Amino acid sequence: MIRNLKDIKPNIHEDTFVADTASVIGDVTLEEGVSIWYSTVLRGDIENIYIGRYSNI
């Protein structure tokens, strides 16, 4: 699930994998080659979250 938080939307590179059961919400940046695996929650509501190239979460 990829969701905006108010007027802030995630910035996700086109070469990124986000599993069906993962949640990416708000001020989150996912660079090239990132994998966000099952049941992961990235919630950028108070601070931003930046995941660099080729990281696996």
Can you walk me through this structure?
The protein is mainly β and 57 residues long. The chain is built from no helices and 6 strands. The strands form 2 sheets. Strands 1, 2, 4 and 6 form a 4-stranded parallel sheet that branches. A two-stranded parallel ribbon has the order 3-5. The mean pLDDT is 96.
Task: Write out key terms for the chains shown.
two-stranded parallel sheet; 57 residues; four-stranded parallel β-sheet; mainly beta; single chain
Structural class comes to: mainly beta
Please, how many helices?
0
Q: Quick one: overall form?
A: globular
Order of helices and strands: EEEEEE
Mean pLDDT: 96
Report low-confidence residues grouped into runs of 5 or more.
none
Major sheet size, sense and barrel closure = 4 strands, parallel
Please tell me how large the radius of gyration is. Answer: 10 Å
Number of strands: 6
What is the straight-line distance between the termini?
A: 15 Å
How much helix, percentage-wise, in residues? under 10%
Strand fraction band? over 45%
Which helices and strands, and how do they pair?
Blueprint: E1 2-3, E2 11-12, E3 17-18, E4 23-30, E5 35-36, E6 41-51
Parallel strand pairs: 1-4, 2-4, 3-5, 4-6
